[in-house]
Design goal:
The complex is a heterodimer of chains A (709) and B (82). Chain A has 709 residues and is α/β, with parallel strands linked by helices. In chain A, a hairpin with a 5-residue loop joins β4 and β5. In chain A, α3 crosses α11, α25 packs across α26 and α31 packs across α32. Chain A is elongated. The termini of chain A are far apart. Chain B is mainly beta and 82 residues long. In chain B, strands 1-6-2-3-4-5 form a 6-stranded antiparallel sheet. The chains are: A alpha/beta (709), B mainly beta (82). Chains A and B meet through α3, α11, α17 and β12 of A and α1 and β5 of B. β12 of chain A pairs antiparallel with β5 of chain B, so a sheet runs across the interface.
């Protein structure tokens, strides 16, 4: 690398671009552009060691040329405070193991929000990579009566600027053309800080070039980060520090000396660069943007006047949420019945095809029933993700966070935790997956940890049967009242635990709530469909692997060891699961449960609604147990000494147990995937088990003390 | 009359009021993050609204809308323009 005194980048055409990185601010249309480039040739995974989603795809150029496209997480800045930013920086500099260093960076810029979007551009320039600007959403700018001189912007930035409307596929061909021809860029840093500061930066750049062998671009970018750290570099920070460079002792000493000098002179390195960049951006903005007619209120202002109104805001908000849940609990039931029927048919077909024996039982009762029991939730997940991507893409999601932040902040959470928690009422799996929108890792983790406390739809069958046993003669309103109480109990539990976690284990500074309220936009249906497809694919993949394996394990537990001549509940009692239930009895007796309920609890770990089918086996009802017959069987069940088993107090205690316990392998699996560790799902499982046990115990014991049965 | 212009914290401004950012009361990661979003000294800012429950606050800056909690807004000193 040539060592010039100025930081200019001159790059000639690179004719063989193999890897392109897409970057840009959130809400800039980056994902839309990625979809337009890659169609369905996308791969979603994780970066090694971090929980950040890794999205890659391939772009087809003329003559069958294939280019890899990396979609970096949307971000406002390249500083290294968040894992996203750190990852993006590492990918761009080619420091990530399994991701090739990009030959070209395409920065997607929201033309309607040019000033703030150019901030990231100015940071990207520091890295000295060949770059193109996709000046996106040009239609909105024209609509607002503004004009952007793209040619001039290109000259001032020293890189190609392509006006695009990614949602209408405009400008995509031009971008492809540039990628296939290669780009010529020629830029140098246009902004300057105070001379004293510049001198120190230059000093540090020289040190980094000398000691670490960096090129000048890398060294400059690194110097800015080091000087903006504020705190002194310590020995242990060499490894764990945000820059992850292993500096030599001598260099650290020198850096700390520079920090001291800056401190003495009262120079704020951390904000000086930000302000200098924005000054430079302002001058570019003034030269390139012309406002022809200043309009008063735009559409976004008018919508916001309603949806963030003190009264109408809540009405609208509750309306949307009600609609979402209505769809999840009503419309979704039709396809759910079809899926159920489909799996039953498949089971019947296998029953007829395979010879009788253990293999057939394994396939039908273990695999098909197990996977079917989980796959049945696919319609609910699809509807939920349809709503979530709609809310996100239109911009309303940011408003829900805006109006709910006050409520969430009471328990130490962020407005953005609201949607994941709400979604968990349908199913904790999409809820936990949607927690990805929370930037702070600790807040995200707290949200994930408490999400399954929200009563999901799988608890419904359990609540329904228990309420039926508890109050056979109750009116619909009374039943709904108890149901509501269970939901409220879950909410209160989630709030308390979130508060507790934020106070103790996952203590962090109060979460900062700095959130853009993007203009309202029509969603791209294409993007919504891709999003739904992606999520359901991940869900089904899990159903086909982890859940399949666990279903088999549960089946084995409930079917072995086999004893000749034993049938139904007798055989079940002799099985491993039955033995576990019996062994569990002393532990769960204080809650009012016997070994039979114990088996139900064990079976529930596959999925909560399995409780109902397991209990039908326990009570010898055969596979097709109707709710009524199960209810009668429950009412007839007795302890060996003749006491009735399902007293009202036991029903209540059991329901409370189900409110709090994490009896869902799918959730455990998804938490494992989302947190990339076994520690957190295990921790979650244990804390929720303890919570459920204590809550059920206190219901039963306190109830008895108060004279209930 | 510039000499009459008041300096208040952003969280004390009322809806529709405009001002020019002067300074941050402290130097911290959070303030740096806010500055990176374009809330820098010298820039004009307008309070658009408060959330229905009174917090957070929505401001307009550099032609876009940003929301932040009053707690953070209290750290930003603003010279009131109108």
């Amino acid at each position: 690398m040539k060592r010039m005194s100025s930081l200019a980048l001159q790059s000639t055409r690179q004719s063989l671009i193999k890897t392109v990185a897409l970057t840009g601010n959130p809400n800039s249309g980056k994902t839309t552009l990625f979809n337009a480039f890659t169609k369905l040739r996308q791969k979603v995974g994780n970066y090694p060691g971090v929980t950040i989603e890794r999205k890659t795809g391939t772009l087809m150029l003329a003559n069958d040329r294939v280019v890899n496209v990396i979609d970096l997480p949307g971000m406002y800045s390249l500083a290294v405070r968040s894992p996203d930013e750190q990852l993006a920086r590492n990918v761009l500099m080619g420091r990530t193991h399994d991701t090739p260093k990009p030959d070209l960076v395409i920065c997607v810029v929201d033309a309607g929000n040019l000033e703030r979007n150019l901030y990231l551009v100015s940071q990207l320039q520091d890295l000295g990579l060949p770059m193109i600007i996709a000046l996106n959403m040009m239609d909105e700018v024209e609509h607002q009566g503004k004009e952007i001189d793209a040619a001039r912007l290109s000259r001032l930035l020293g890189m190609p600027v392509v006006p695009t409307v990614a949602s209408q596929n405009k400008g995509i061909e031009e971008l492809k053309q540039l990628i296939s021809e290669g780009v010529t860029v020629s830029y140098q840093r246009g902004w300057r800080m105070a001379p004293d500061l510049e001198e120190e930066v230059e000093h540090l750049v020289r040190l980094l070039v000398q000691h670490e062998g960096m090129d000048r671009h890398q060294a400059f970018a690194e110097a800015l980060i080091l000087l903006s750290l504020g705190a002194k570099l310590k020995n242990e920070e060499k490894k764990a520090g945000p820059t992850q460079w292993f500096y030599k002792e001598e260099l650290i000493r020198q850096i700390n000396m520079i920090q001291d000098r800056l401190h003495l002179k009262g120079l704020r390195a951390r904000t000086a660069a930000i302000e200098a960049r924005y000054d430079w951006i302002k001058s570019i903005f003034k030269q390139c943007v012309r406002d022809k007619n200043k309009q008063g209120e735009d559409l976004t202002e008018r919508i916001d006047a309603i949806v963030t109104h003190k009264l109408w805001g809540w009405v609208f908000f509750l309306g949307i949420m009600a609609l979402m849940f209505y769809m999840i609990f009503t419309i979704a039931t039709y396809p759910m019945d079809w899926i159920d029927a489909g799996f039953n048919k498949l089971g019947d077909w296998v029953t007829q095809t395979l010879p009788e024996g253990q293999l057939r039982n394994l396939v039908v009762d273990g695999m098909i029933a197990g996977v079917g029991g989980v796959a049945i939730f696919l319609p609910q997940i699809l509807i939920l993700f349809f709503f979530i991507s709609l809310l996100q893409d239109t911009g309303y999601m940011a408003r829900t966070a805006f109006i709910m932040d006050r409520v969430m902040s009471r328990v130490g959470l962020h407005g953005k935790s609201f949607i994941p928690l709400l979604s968990s009422f349908a199913c904790a799996i999409p809820g936990i997956m949607s927690a990805r929108t929370i930037e702070s890792p600790k807040d995200r983790l707290v949200t994930i940890l408490v999400a399954p406390l929200m009563s999901c739809s799988a608890r419904l069958p359990v609540y329904t049967i228990m309420i039926a046993v508890l109050m056979p003669a109750a009116t619909g309103m009374q039943k709904a009242g108890i149901m509501l109480a269970m939901y409220m109990l879950g909410i209160v539990g989630a709030c308390l635990m979130a508060w507790l976690f934020k106070k103790t284990l996952l203590r962090s500074q109060k979460p900062v709530f700095i959130m853009e309220l993007p203009p309202y936009r029509w969603p791209s249906w294409h993007a919504v469909v891709i999003h739904m497809w992606e999520r359901s694919r991940l869900f089904l993949k899990r159903a086909g692997t982890v859940i399949l394996a666990l279903s088999v394990v549960l089946w084995v537990l409930m079917s072995y060891p086999r004893h000749e001549g034993l049938q139904g509940s007798e055989a079940l009692k002799a099985s491993f699961a039955g033995q576990m239930g019996t062994a569990l009895e002393p532990v769960i007796e204080p809650l009012g449960y016997d070994w039979r309920i114990g088996i139900g609890l064990i079976g529930s770990f596959a999925a909560r609604e399995v409780f109902v089918s397991t209990m039908s086996i326990v009570f010898n009802l055969g596979d097709e147990a109707r709710e009524k017959s199960l209810r009668e069987a429950f009412q007839a069940a007795h302890w060996p000494d003749g006491r009735p088993l399902f007293t009202p107090l036991v029903c209540l205690s059991l329901m409370v147990f189900y409110v709090f316990a994490l009896q869902c392998v799918s959730t455990v699996a998804v938490v494992w995937r989302e947190t990339n560790s076994w520690y957190w799902p295990l921790f979650q499982f244990v804390y929720m088990a303890i919570l459920a046990y204590l809550a059920a115990l206190s219901v039963y014991q306190l109830g008895r003390m108060m004279g209930f049965v | 009359m510039p000499e009459n212009r008041k300096t208040v914290s952003l969280s004390k401004m009322s809806i529709g009021q405009k001002g020019r950012i002067r300074d941050f009361l402290v130097e911290s990661d959070d303030c740096e993050r806010i500055e990176e979003m374009g809330v820098t000294p010298g820039e004009q800012v307008e309070v658009v609204r408060y959330a229905p429950l009174g917090d957070p606050i929505e401001i307009k800056i550099r032609g876009y809308h940003l929301s932040l909690r009053k707690e953070e807004a209290a750290l930003i000193q603003v010279e009131v323009l109108s």
